[in-house]
Amino acid sequence: MTRRRRPRPRPVDRADRGADLHVHTSHSDGTLSPGEVVRSAAAVGLSAVAITDHDTLSALALALPEADRLGIELVPGIELSARDEGREVHLLGHFVDPDHPELRSAADALRASRRIRLERMIDRLADFGLIVDPEALRRAFPRAALGRKHLADYLVRTGQVPTHRLVFSRFLGDDGPAAVPKAGPTVAEAIALIRRAGGVAGLPHPPYDLSMERLRSYREAGLGALEVDGPSLDRRRSSRWRLVAEQLDLVPIAGSDFHAPDRPGRWVGSITTPAADLDRLRRLSSR
């Protein structure tokens, strides 16, 4: 069954609109500037918006004056990359201190390691006669945090490998000869870092195969919130995660995972967190 598209939100009373707690800007892989994101949130009547760029806090200082001007709450956030037994896991941090030195240092290190990893994979692909022009790759994917998927797209687009499946099966799969493991903190370390920065750690877009055992281990490490509604979740899975959040005493959060206005159903404010749950999240933070 095809999921019904969410209607584009219309300006209403801000007390009723809630908060979009998962939004990206041009400071990571989004297309809108921090100010444009805030103006978009205000235009649809949101009471609050969280900027959660990938591994960077740099948009927050630019967004805050516009949020103050428009009378909308800016929730300082980040989407932090972590690892769990070879698998990449993202963690949202809400109500973090944007000036927390340890968090800023960790975010800078993650972005630097991503660039180094990409360069190493390009070098390894060259050993197999597969040529990737770094500048052409960046032009092809100007908004992306570049990784294996983008390398595969590039190799298929340039006709060097016929299919994405073949790229991963022969070269870039987890055990492939051109793959380079990701660096970064473990999930437990990332959760602890977010908490030391005064924030609440939340798990966004939970994968369909996430086990209760693993989620409980995240909870025991200090996870405080679970994304229960987002563009990748249908109604059945959303209902399931709401029940799980209640069982584990996690704050249920929701957001659009906004990157660009041209993505149907994923504009700022299309999916929101009710005010009561935002208040729970705020109380859970130590800021």
From TrEMBL:
Pfam families: PHP (PF02811). Residues 1-34 are annotated as: Disordered. Gene3D superfamilies: 1.10.150.650, Metal-dependent hydrolases. GO terms for molecular function: 5'-3' DNA exonuclease activity; 5'-3' RNA exonuclease activity. Residues 10-27 have a biased composition (Basic and acidic residues). Residues 19-84 form the Polymerase/histidinol phosphatase N-terminal domain. CDD domains: PHP_HisPPase_AMP. SMART domains: POLIIIAc. InterPro entries: PHP_dom, PHP_domain, Pol/His_phosphatase_N, Pol/histidinol_Pase-like. This is PHP domain-containing protein. It comes from Tautonia sociabilis. The lineage of its organism: Bacteria, Pseudomonadati, Planctomycetota, Planctomycetia, Isosphaerales.
